[in-house]
Write a structure and sequence with these properties.
By secondary structure, the chain is mostly helical. The protein has one domain. It contains three helices and no strands. Helix 1 runs antiparallel to helix 2. It is elongated and about 60 Å long.
């Protein structure tokens, strides 16, 4: 949800830049340019952290994977 909100904020920033420049639009540009990417990266970081926690869980059955299987998979 945060990623979509960040994308929408970045698109809104483009419309604000195309509008006439005044004090309010310059302030909005600064806010949108910082909040848009912050929302997108926070959503991606949260999803990545959740995946890391899932894979580091001790309840998950762990399997020993040798390096040779990884090399064969990459070829």
């Amino acid at each position: 949800m945060f990623v979509i909100a960040g994308v929408i904020i970045c698109f809104l920033d483009a419309y604000v830049m195309c509008a006439g420049l005044n004090d309010a639009s310059c302030a909005a540009i600064r806010v949108f340019l910082s909040l848009g990417p912050a929302f997108m990266y926070s959503g991606l970081l949260t999803k990545t952290l959740r995946i890391v926690i899932i894979f580091q869980s001790t309840n998950v059955l762990k399997k020993h994977v040798r390096e040779i299987y990884i090399v064969r998979f990459l070829q």
